Amino acid sequence: MNALVPLPVVMPLLGAALTLLLPRWPQVQRTISVLVLVATLAVSAVLLVRAYQHGPLVVRLGAWSPPVGIVLVADQLAALLLTVSAAVTLCVLLYSIGQGQGDLGEGTPVSIFHPTYLVLTAGVTNAFLAGDLFNLFVGFEILLVASYVLITLGGTDVRIRTGSTYVVVSVLSSMILLSGVGLVYAATGTLNLAQLATRLGTLPADLALALHLMLLLAFGVKAAVFPLAAWLPDSYPTAPAPVTAVFAGLLTKVGVYAVIRTETLLFPGGQVGTLLMVVAGLTMLVGILGAVAQSDLKRLLSFTLVSHIGYMIFGVALSTVAGLSGPIFYVVHHITVQTTLFLVTGLVEQRAGGTDLRRLGGLARIAPLLAVLFFVPAMNLAGVPPFPGFLGKLGLFQAGAQVGGALPWTLVAAGALTSLLTLYTASRVWNIAFWREPRLATADPPTRLPGLMVGSTIALVASGVVLTLVAGPLWAVTADAASDLHLRTPYVRAVFPGGTP
């Protein structure tokens, strides 16, 4: 069964190579891309079941033993995020295919879209499975190179300008990460995560703290936490709708995943817990206040994306099993719901001609299904019971209350306020865009939305509802994953069954 571990990385790369060779056969490109992502989803689901039942799965590439060789590790956290990300990338791919069939504008996917999208998928899966710091860096670089192409797809002036900002920030964070990786190797003689779990603890405290903060700085930029998130609301909204959706759903979560690994496996004990709590609180409040001030739906959702990253950082900062279980559950929920909302925004743009709230109105009467597709995930994001957004926030608040103290209680209050302001922004969008007198941002006659775009969006909305129905078992998986992360020994023993060298 360990032989399955590399497949979520290998299959998208092979699919990208095949689709790159077939630019004149778009239908074949689409078929290959869909089949690859279906297979990736199936393999990821099997890995999740096996990791939950039998512990982490490890594969040594080229039969080289760690720490010399490269290892890929599918523990419960990695396998869970692999499964959710594969499901989301498949839905977004179907959405983009539907958009290509019905839209001949600048958002139309071109022949380079499919190979680039599959390379992006491979980068995400490689980052989740990486068993050493350098391979984690490689995973980030693969997905970033692909994202550079996708965010400027179509080559309009606006996309080139905002894409340049994204490229500069991403390159800067990659340079910080690469420098941190080099310094970690210089200090410990290894980059294997399981071996670092023991060696970093032997370093002088000030050196370990410096390495810790350097890695967090790099991952903080990629996760878009305050004050390192200014690039996101300007960069994401200008990309084509499916690209914005997959970026919003996945890319920042890879950064959050790296933060979780750093704080549990490499630097446990919550040495920077106070700093992370302050950052989490500011990320929540600054993000949601930015969302309240927006009049464009895409920018509003970009600010809510930043805001809700704060919930995940809050849970990590608590450094308890309950605290870790909360962000893992919340990551799964947020990947689904944030991607859904950006796909719905793409439908609104195609149906009404724009996303400027000042020029929209009455969509509930013009397109009732579109109203439902927005309302359900919006309430989910706001944390209205019984959706997973409510359960995730409740779990985080309970974990904060168990820890106690002034700062955790302040974060609980900030989280509750952020949830209320999220509900306010979602209600405001609903009242303006869907409820008031009908108006459209374009004088062109409305076009019928392609069935594949609507169908894939419905699938993701339904996924959010299904998460509500399976919240109990899902919480059990996240709690088990959090327990393994807190212990560290399941991960280390899986990589070094004979003991850490």
TrEMBL record:
Lineage top rank: taxon: Bacteria
Places the protein is found: Cell membrane; Membrane
Organism: Micromonospora cathayae
Domain NADH:quinone oxidoreductase/Mrp antiporter transmembrane: residue ranges: 130-421
Membrane topology: Multi-pass membrane protein
Main localization of the protein described in the UniProt heading: membrane
InterPro entries: CPA3_Na-H_Antiporter_D, NADH_UbQ_OxRdtase, ND/Mrp_TM
UniProtKB keywords: Cell membrane, Membrane, Transmembrane, Transmembrane helix
The keyword Membrane appears for this protein: yes
Chain ranges passing through the membrane: 6-22, 34-53, 73-98, 110-130, 136-154, 166-187, 207-232, 239-260, 272-293, 300-322, 328-348, 369-387, 407-430, 451-476
The family this protein is said to belong to: Belongs to the CPA3 antiporters (TC 2.A.63) subunit D family.
Keyword rRNA processing: no
Name of protein: Na+/H+ antiporter subunit D
Pfam families linked: Proton_antipo_M
